[in-house]
What we know:
Elements: H1 2-13, H2 17-20, H3 25-28, E1 43-44, E2 50-51, H4 53-56, H5 78-109, H6 121-131, H7 142-173, H8 175-188, H9 197-204, H10 208-232, H11 236-244, H12 249-260, H13 262-283, H14 292-301, H15 305-339
Antiparallel strand pairs: 1-2
Helix pairs in contact: 6-15, 7-8, 7-10, 7-13, 7-14, 9-10, 10-13, 11-12, 13-14, 13-15, 14-15
Amino acid sequence: MNYLSRQSNQAADFQSPAAASNQPPSEAREPILETPEKGLAPVECSNGRPETASKASPIPKAEGPIEPGQTRADWSPHWLTHWWPKLIEARLSLLSLIVFFILWEGVCYFGIIGPYQLVPPSKVIKIFILKLTEVNPDGAYLWAHALSSLGLAVLGFMAAALVGIPLGLLMGWYPRFNYIARPLFDIIRPVPPIAWIPLAILWLGIGVKAKAFIIFLASFVPCVINSFTGIRLTNPTLTRVAKIHGASDFTVFLKIGTPSAIPMIFTGLRLSLNAAWTTLVAAELLAASQGLGFMIQMGRRLARPDIVIVGMLTIGFLGAILSWGLTKAEKLFVSSRRLS
Length: 340
């Protein structure tokens, strides 16, 4: 009995206002409300009718396709799925740099390493700003050192690319040319570029030519090796098809072999660029009066690790910019060839 009375009371509570006032059902029937979404409670509106919270304050819906078996709540915008991993990677990279500089500052602050061996990053930044407007103690501004070294590195690098890339392509495509040039290249290849400094002074003096020659030798070997490897990886099916249709060997070399070697050629250029900046300090030992290598040597002689570190960081910064530009040029060049 208690159960039946309780059910009747609940049914009476849920009667519509029209039924309580004995109005006809056709006039008192209310529109059927949509079932409230899960987790959203009904709210009271101005007209006295209950609505869900989603109707009272509409929630913006994401736009985009929904996969089968996937709800609208599970869908995330394309830009979020594309950029979120990159944002996490950028935060991790930034965090690692912050931790590195904090540890560096702490090692110098607590005296674990003496001031004549290592200086804190705060002092390095101070010296970097000071060298932009001050010539002491090495006799030139920082930007003058950077421009001198940049011109020297680019000169040796460009010379190595202009000679090394065609040489590697010819060695990889024509066996007879490879038989002629390979023995001499194998003799020069293992010799360190620094070992050429005495001969460079005897042949070219102590000017810019001798320094560019040392950088040329350091950048020359990666260009030859990667160009040689790239053209040797050409698809033989493409070359046979071209020759069947009457193309000459030199035409196949220009139209098929060389384009297929472009990715490896750019890899060699990046390695050559790194080798050029690595050899820069040694090349500027030849009676230089400006340059980042000269600045580093002066910092060593004066027992100024801050000057040395500023020169090293400037070399790394310029090298990173040139490498980034080379990567962008590779993407543009490869994409333009695909379109053509």
